[in-house]
Model the fold of this input.
Amino acid sequence: MKIIVIVGPTAVGKSKVSVELAKIINAEIISGDSVQVYKKLDIGSGKITETEMDDVPHHLIDFLEITESYSVSRFQKEVRKKIEEIKAREKNVIICGGTGLYIKAALTNYQLGGGLKRDRDFSKKYISYSNEELHDILTKIDYESSLKFHQNNRARVLRAVEYHQKTGSKISDKKDCTEDLYDYKIIGLGMKREKLYDKINQRVDDMFSKGLINEVESLYNLKNNIDAIGYNELFEFLDQKISLEESTELIKRNSRRYAKRQFTWFNNQMDTNWIDVYGLSTTDVLDKILKLIN
Done:
């Protein structure tokens, strides 16, 4: 069977669908999320709980300390290793997540860094620039890339700026010559924007009711190692830079913006089969997925 990839924006319900699908097709699940790899980033990352896993094996979740670094290349290697291990157990593979670049890099021969040899001294030229200032530069020289790379993803923004300065071309215009390394099918779970935004807002409220503030407070001494929505905004609150109400609204706004970027990525970068899941039961969604993959 193909590798089944369940993607979509935050709060759309990917985890539950993936677990139920795994039971049907005898699969194990590999997380395609760049934040849920970290221990202690639980509520704010929307990390699936052990109860929600329902005895379905999950991989690449909760296995790194916050002080450890993670990268696309590391994810690429680890996912490929997990795929072979799961297949050796004669199980099927589901990849579930919303970090598009990570998933594409794992499943194709995607060339990291745009094929440009890395210059470790280049970043020193912009060491005094804030993330926002650096992102503004990218917006002016490569608007398409600025939509794909959040300003807090400094490494990717810097790489796109470097690519433009050294080649005179936009990294977003680089011809995509990637080839698939696996037989896979991408299923995108989505819904109309206003409905999704309502779910995102409700999800953030639910995170607060589950103890998000306490989680972030417990991580305050590690804040320089954390760069994720739901944490950055509350660190500003704890630093008394903004009010709790402002922090909450920022989390909701930034989550909505992230969801929009996720839609853009999967629409433009991968052959995604979208299912509008609004108003559908999990059983209905699974029926649609099974028709697509069989």
